[in-house]
Every structure is written in structure tokens, then in C-alpha cells.
Amino acid sequence: MMERLNGRYRPMAMVASRARHKVAPALVAGAVILVSSGCGEEEDTPSATEETAYSEELPAIGEPVEFFLYTHCGVESLRLGGQWWHAVEPLYGDGGPGTAPKGWGDPYEKGELTRESEQRVTFESEGTDVSFVPAPDDRPMTECR
Known about the structure:
Blueprint: E1 2-5, E2 8-11, H1 12-43, H2 48-52, E3 65-70, E4 75-80, E5 83-91, E6 108-117, E7 120-125, E8 128-134
Antiparallel strand pairs: 1-2, 3-6, 4-5, 5-8, 6-7, 7-8
């Protein structure tokens, strides 16, 4: 069977062979992109254990711990030691309240949480600090979904 390739008729097997040589590098490049893009996502996606770490217990004062902060709706509140804490100065993305801070992961940002005192904790990531204090009504600032 004959097929047209580059303006000339060639046997079908030759057309298929040349097509494979053009597709193979594209498939390899696509696989490399998929593998490399998946690596960054895993680092900023907490396991079930990491997601709830410290939600019911407090870390020791002065000892930084790895922490995954929920950022999808902005940085407003976190659950720590069985209670809600509010950001002293909430942090949002360019879209304002309801958006993750620019340059931070969405829905989570991995960073360090340090309990400064009984009444203050600080989350640090990407060179930015956000301080939290216990919520007066033990509720998140807003209900974001």
C-alpha cells in the first residue's frame, strides 16, 4: 500500500516508521515534563498525617516544626492545639480575600511554624512571616470553600 509523504508516494511501512521517529522524542519530552512537574507538587501536598499535625496539640514553645498551612482562601486562620487562631495581619493574593498569596502554594504552603508564646505562633515560608493569636470566638475568620 502506498501513502503520500513529503509530496511523494512511499510504501505505508516507511511512512509509519518516519512518524514513529518524530513522535518518540515528543513522548519522551512529555514524560520528562510530567515526572518533573509531579515532584514539586508532592512536596507541597501534605499527607493525611501532616495535614492534621498539631491540630489538636501544640508544639513546644520556641521549637520550629514543619507545618502545612491551608492557603486556598488566603492566610487568615489555622487550627492549632484544639482551637482556632487568627492571623494578626491576614495575607492574600492579588485577588484580595479568598485568594492564596502570590508565590505560595494553593491549597497548601509548606513552611515552619514556631510557637513564640502561649498567645502567639508564627508561620514562615518564602521569607514571609505571618503571626497568629488565639481566636476570641474559637472560629475561623471566614468560612471559605
